[in-house]
Amino acid sequence: MYLVGDLGAEGTPIMATLAEQVQGERMARIALSMIAEPNDPTTGYVLTRHGGVETLRLIESDDEVPGLARADTLMWRQRLTAHFTSGLLDQVAQAERRPERLGRPCAVPAVDARRGLVLDDGVE
Question: How far apart are CA 31 and CA 8, in angstroms?
Answer without folding.
Answer: 26
